[in-house]
Design brief:
With about 260 residues, the protein is of the alpha/beta class. It has ten helices and ten strands. It has two domains: about 190 residues, 2-enoyl-CoA Hydratase, Chain A, domain 1 (Alpha-Beta Complex), CATH 3.90.226.10; about 45 residues, Lyase 2-enoyl-coa Hydratase, Chain  A, domain 2 (Orthogonal Bundle), CATH 1.10.12. About 45% of the residues lie in helices and about 15% in strands. Strands 1-2-3-5-7-10 form a six-stranded mixed beta sheet, sandwiched between helices. Helix 1 packs parallel to helix 2. It is globular.
Length: about 260
């Protein structure tokens, strides 16, 4: 299996599990961001993987984001390189053709939270803490935070978290729509695996088409997306999974998806 810097990949049936592993706080580096981008590309090429779970190793951190030592020298060229790397990695994660689930099993700060925001679904363990504190050190979220956070929680809470540096706990995150589920400490991965098993029951091709349409709602007018929705529906009739899904239903059996 390919070696991905600071990332551990395991595959269980139709689910890929990615563990962030850069102790002590699982901060992102140029190498690990490039590794994540490559990992997503590799998973997109695996027809038998339908879901991706990402979590931090241990109990304290999901990820503390970028190591501020990277920006201590004020090197603008390095800042540009890191910003591009963050953007490319998390945009690749957002565009993953399957369903991505973040298990926030501790602190998710800055680029750590932005990684979770790039996923389709977020599960927080009860001790999790989340923040985008960049403005407090003279920076700003540059990996999708200013765009993805208000989409989930609304402009007001996005401004509280980004402009005021407000940190939220798991209960607040659930209330404002930042996460979709809370579990007890240590149980987030189990909950994510159960959700991934539900994903595996759906046609992976239909899921991929549907995900793209849902995310397009962020920046494409409904009148245009409704046309694209109908076009995608008809396009599914060119796939093996569409025929298999209908036949399996009529024959009262489980479908055998091929992701084709």
């Amino acid at each position: 299996m390919t070696d991905y810097t600071n990332l551990t990949l395991s595959i269980d049936h139709h689910t890929a599990i990615v563990t962030l592993n850069n102790p002590p706080a699982h901060t992102w580096t140029m190498d690990s961001l490039q590794a994540l981008k490559q990992l997503i590309a590799d998973l997109n090429a695996k027809d038998d993987v339908y879901a991706l779970i990402i979590h931090g190793d241990g109990e304290k951190f999901f990820s503390a984001g970028a190591d501020l030592n990277n920006f201590a020298d004020g090197d603008k060229g390095h800042a540009i390189s890191m910003a591009i790397a963050f953007g490319e990695a998390f945009e690749a994660l957002s565009a993953y053709r399957g369903v991505s689930i973040a298990v926030i099993n501790g602190y998710a700060m800055g680029g750590g939270l932005e990684c979770a925001l790039a996923c389709d679904i977020r599960i927080a363990e009860e001790h999790a803490q989340m923040a985008l504190p960049e403005t407090g050190v003279g920076l700003l979220p540059c990996a999708g935070g200013t765009q993805n956070l208000p989409w989930l929680v609304g402009e007001g809470w996005a401004k509280r978290m980004i402009l005021c540096g407000e940190r939220v706990d798991a209960n607040t995150a659930l209330r404002i729509g930042l996460v979709e589920e809370i579990t007890a400490k240590g149980e987030g991965l189990t909950a994510a695996q159960a959700l991934a098993q539900k994903v595996a029951k759906q046609s992976p091709v239909a899921v991929s088409y549907s995900k793209a349409l849902i995310q397009a709602a962020r920046d494409t007018p409904p009148a245009q997306n409704l046309i694209l929705e109908r076009e995608a529906f008809v396009k599914l009739f060119d796939t093996k999974d569409q025929r298999e899904g209908v036949q399996a239903f009529l024959e009262k059996r489980k479908p055998n998806w091929q992701n084709k």
